[in-house]
Amino acid sequence: MTNKELTNEYMNLLLNMSGTFKLLSEKSTEFTHLEQRIVEYINHIQKKTSILLNSYNNL
Q: Which residue in 25, 35, 42, 45 is deepest, having the highest Cβ count within 10 Å?
C-alpha cells in the first residue's frame, strides 16, 4: 500500500468511528459527557490530520 492509500484508510476509519458514536448517541436516551468528548476528540483528530495531509501533499 502506498502512503496515500494508507492515509485514506486512516481518514475513513476516523469518519466511521465518528459516525458510529454519533449514531449510538442518537439512539440512546442519554448522550453522556464521555461520548460527547469522544466525538469531539475524533473530530479534532480528523481536522488536524486533514491539515497535516494537505501540508504534506503540497511539499
A: 42
